[in-house]
Specification:
Elements (H helix, E strand, L loop, with lengths): L2 H12 L3 H13 L1 H13 L1 H10 L1 H7 L1 H24 L15 H13 L2 H9 L10 H32 L4 H24 L1
Helix pairs in contact: 1-9, 2-3, 2-7, 2-9, 3-7, 3-9, 4-8, 4-9, 6-10
Length: 198
Protein backbone atom coordinates (compact mmCIF):
# COMPACT_ATOMS: atom_id res chain seq x y z
CA UNK A 1 0.00 0.00 0.00
CA UNK A 2 1.22 3.50 -0.86
CA UNK A 3 3.12 5.02 2.07
CA UNK A 4 2.23 8.53 0.91
CA UNK A 5 -1.45 7.65 1.10
CA UNK A 6 -1.10 6.25 4.62
CA UNK A 7 0.89 9.23 5.93
CA UNK A 8 -1.39 11.81 4.36
CA UNK A 9 -4.48 10.00 5.60
CA UNK A 10 -3.02 9.86 9.10
CA UNK A 11 -2.38 13.61 9.04
CA UNK A 12 -5.92 14.29 7.85
CA UNK A 13 -7.45 11.99 10.48
CA UNK A 14 -5.33 13.25 13.40
CA UNK A 15 -5.97 16.92 12.59
CA UNK A 16 -8.72 18.14 14.94
CA UNK A 17 -12.05 18.83 13.32
CA UNK A 18 -15.73 18.45 14.09
CA UNK A 19 -15.53 14.68 14.57
CA UNK A 20 -12.55 14.86 16.90
CA UNK A 21 -14.18 17.63 18.89
CA UNK A 22 -17.43 15.68 19.27
CA UNK A 23 -15.55 12.53 20.30
CA UNK A 24 -13.49 14.42 22.88
CA UNK A 25 -16.60 16.06 24.31
CA UNK A 26 -18.40 12.69 24.52
CA UNK A 27 -15.48 10.96 26.25
CA UNK A 28 -14.92 13.82 28.64
CA UNK A 29 -18.57 14.23 29.55
CA UNK A 30 -19.72 10.61 29.74
CA UNK A 31 -16.69 8.38 29.91
CA UNK A 32 -14.86 5.72 27.92
CA UNK A 33 -17.84 3.81 26.52
CA UNK A 34 -19.66 6.85 25.17
CA UNK A 35 -16.44 8.24 23.71
CA UNK A 36 -15.73 5.02 21.81
CA UNK A 37 -19.34 4.90 20.57
CA UNK A 38 -18.96 8.49 19.36
CA UNK A 39 -15.74 7.51 17.56
CA UNK A 40 -17.63 4.69 15.86
CA UNK A 41 -20.44 7.05 14.82
CA UNK A 42 -18.00 9.57 13.36
CA UNK A 43 -16.30 6.75 11.45
CA UNK A 44 -19.64 5.41 10.22
CA UNK A 45 -20.39 8.82 8.70
CA UNK A 46 -17.51 8.24 6.28
CA UNK A 47 -19.35 5.37 4.60
CA UNK A 48 -21.97 7.50 2.78
CA UNK A 49 -19.20 9.86 1.65
CA UNK A 50 -17.19 6.95 0.29
CA UNK A 51 -20.18 5.43 -1.49
CA UNK A 52 -21.07 8.83 -2.91
CA UNK A 53 -17.55 9.23 -4.27
CA UNK A 54 -17.63 5.72 -5.78
CA UNK A 55 -20.97 6.34 -7.49
CA UNK A 56 -20.05 9.82 -8.68
CA UNK A 57 -22.49 11.68 -6.44
CA UNK A 58 -19.63 13.59 -4.83
CA UNK A 59 -18.60 14.89 -8.26
CA UNK A 60 -22.14 16.11 -8.82
CA UNK A 61 -22.14 17.74 -5.39
CA UNK A 62 -18.88 19.53 -6.17
CA UNK A 63 -20.03 20.58 -9.65
CA UNK A 64 -23.45 21.74 -8.45
CA UNK A 65 -22.76 24.91 -6.52
CA UNK A 66 -26.34 25.12 -5.21
CA UNK A 67 -26.25 21.60 -3.78
CA UNK A 68 -22.83 22.17 -2.26
CA UNK A 69 -23.94 25.47 -0.72
CA UNK A 70 -27.06 23.88 0.79
CA UNK A 71 -25.08 21.04 2.39
CA UNK A 72 -22.45 23.47 3.59
CA UNK A 73 -24.93 25.79 5.32
CA UNK A 74 -26.94 22.94 6.82
CA UNK A 75 -23.69 21.57 8.26
CA UNK A 76 -22.72 24.99 9.62
CA UNK A 77 -26.17 25.40 11.19
CA UNK A 78 -25.91 21.98 12.85
CA UNK A 79 -22.54 22.89 14.36
CA UNK A 80 -24.10 26.04 15.79
CA UNK A 81 -26.88 23.88 17.21
CA UNK A 82 -24.25 21.65 18.83
CA UNK A 83 -22.60 24.70 20.39
CA UNK A 84 -25.93 26.00 21.69
CA UNK A 85 -26.86 22.56 23.07
CA UNK A 86 -23.54 22.31 24.90
CA UNK A 87 -24.00 25.72 26.52
CA UNK A 88 -27.63 25.01 27.40
CA UNK A 89 -26.98 21.58 28.93
CA UNK A 90 -25.49 22.49 32.30
CA UNK A 91 -24.81 18.84 33.05
CA UNK A 92 -22.95 18.16 29.78
CA UNK A 93 -19.51 18.27 31.35
CA UNK A 94 -20.28 17.50 34.94
CA UNK A 95 -17.94 14.78 36.12
CA UNK A 96 -19.98 12.23 38.04
CA UNK A 97 -18.66 9.12 39.75
CA UNK A 98 -21.19 6.83 38.05
CA UNK A 99 -22.61 8.70 35.03
CA UNK A 100 -25.82 7.42 33.48
CA UNK A 101 -24.91 5.82 30.15
CA UNK A 102 -26.20 7.66 27.10
CA UNK A 103 -28.14 5.56 24.59
CA UNK A 104 -25.71 4.33 21.93
CA UNK A 105 -28.16 5.10 19.12
CA UNK A 106 -28.41 8.73 20.21
CA UNK A 107 -24.64 9.13 20.42
CA UNK A 108 -24.11 7.48 17.03
CA UNK A 109 -26.88 9.55 15.46
CA UNK A 110 -25.35 12.82 16.63
CA UNK A 111 -21.86 11.71 15.58
CA UNK A 112 -23.04 10.71 12.11
CA UNK A 113 -24.81 14.03 11.64
CA UNK A 114 -21.73 15.96 12.75
CA UNK A 115 -19.64 14.40 9.97
CA UNK A 116 -22.35 13.69 7.41
CA UNK A 117 -23.34 17.36 7.13
CA UNK A 118 -19.73 18.35 6.56
CA UNK A 119 -19.01 18.38 2.80
CA UNK A 120 -15.26 18.28 3.36
CA UNK A 121 -15.07 14.46 3.73
CA UNK A 122 -16.93 14.04 0.43
CA UNK A 123 -14.49 16.37 -1.29
CA UNK A 124 -11.61 14.54 0.39
CA UNK A 125 -12.77 11.23 -1.04
CA UNK A 126 -13.33 12.84 -4.43
CA UNK A 127 -10.06 14.77 -4.68
CA UNK A 128 -7.64 12.63 -2.70
CA UNK A 129 -8.51 8.96 -3.19
CA UNK A 130 -8.55 9.00 -7.01
CA UNK A 131 -4.88 9.97 -7.01
CA UNK A 132 -4.05 6.50 -5.67
CA UNK A 133 -6.62 4.49 -7.62
CA UNK A 134 -6.33 3.30 -11.23
CA UNK A 135 -9.07 4.78 -13.39
CA UNK A 136 -12.31 2.89 -12.93
CA UNK A 137 -10.98 0.59 -10.19
CA UNK A 138 -13.89 0.76 -7.77
CA UNK A 139 -12.51 -2.11 -5.69
CA UNK A 140 -9.29 -0.22 -5.01
CA UNK A 141 -11.24 2.88 -4.01
CA UNK A 142 -13.36 0.85 -1.61
CA UNK A 143 -10.25 -0.76 -0.09
CA UNK A 144 -8.49 2.57 0.41
CA UNK A 145 -11.70 4.07 1.76
CA UNK A 146 -11.87 1.18 4.21
CA UNK A 147 -8.30 1.92 5.31
CA UNK A 148 -9.22 5.57 5.81
CA UNK A 149 -12.23 4.61 7.94
CA UNK A 150 -10.25 2.07 9.98
CA UNK A 151 -7.60 4.70 10.66
CA UNK A 152 -10.31 7.19 11.59
CA UNK A 153 -11.81 4.80 14.12
CA UNK A 154 -8.41 3.97 15.65
CA UNK A 155 -7.38 7.61 16.02
CA UNK A 156 -10.77 8.79 17.26
CA UNK A 157 -10.87 5.95 19.77
CA UNK A 158 -7.47 7.07 21.05
CA UNK A 159 -8.86 10.60 21.43
CA UNK A 160 -11.91 9.22 23.28
CA UNK A 161 -9.80 7.14 25.69
CA UNK A 162 -7.50 10.09 26.42
CA UNK A 163 -10.53 12.29 27.13
CA UNK A 164 -12.02 9.62 29.40
CA UNK A 165 -8.72 9.26 31.26
CA UNK A 166 -8.56 13.03 31.73
CA UNK A 167 -12.16 12.99 32.91
CA UNK A 168 -11.31 10.55 35.70
CA UNK A 169 -8.55 12.85 36.92
CA UNK A 170 -10.47 16.13 36.77
CA UNK A 171 -10.94 17.80 40.14
CA UNK A 172 -14.45 18.72 41.10
CA UNK A 173 -14.08 22.35 40.12
CA UNK A 174 -17.26 23.77 38.53
CA UNK A 175 -15.38 26.77 37.15
CA UNK A 176 -12.98 24.56 35.21
CA UNK A 177 -15.79 22.41 33.83
CA UNK A 178 -17.79 25.46 32.81
CA UNK A 179 -14.75 26.86 31.03
CA UNK A 180 -14.24 23.59 29.19
CA UNK A 181 -17.88 23.53 28.12
CA UNK A 182 -17.59 27.08 26.80
CA UNK A 183 -14.35 26.18 25.06
CA UNK A 184 -15.96 23.27 23.23
CA UNK A 185 -18.92 25.44 22.26
CA UNK A 186 -16.57 28.15 20.95
CA UNK A 187 -14.74 25.54 18.86
CA UNK A 188 -18.03 24.39 17.34
CA UNK A 189 -18.90 28.01 16.50
CA UNK A 190 -15.47 28.56 14.93
CA UNK A 191 -15.76 25.39 12.86
CA UNK A 192 -19.25 26.44 11.78
CA UNK A 193 -18.03 29.84 10.62
CA UNK A 194 -15.05 28.30 8.81
CA UNK A 195 -17.36 25.88 7.02
CA UNK A 196 -19.82 28.63 6.11
CA UNK A 197 -17.17 30.78 4.42
CA UNK A 198 -15.33 27.86 2.78
Amino acid sequence: MNVTFLLTTLVVVVTPGTGVLYTLAAGLAHGRRTGVVAAFGCTLAGLPHLLAAVTGLAALLQAGSVAFTVVKYVGAAYLLYMAWSMLRDRSALVVEQDPAPRPAARVIGSAVLVNLLNPKPALFFLAFLPQFVPAGDIGAMLRLGGVFMAMTFAVFTAYALCAAALRERLPRRPGLLTGMRRGFAACFVALSLRLAVA
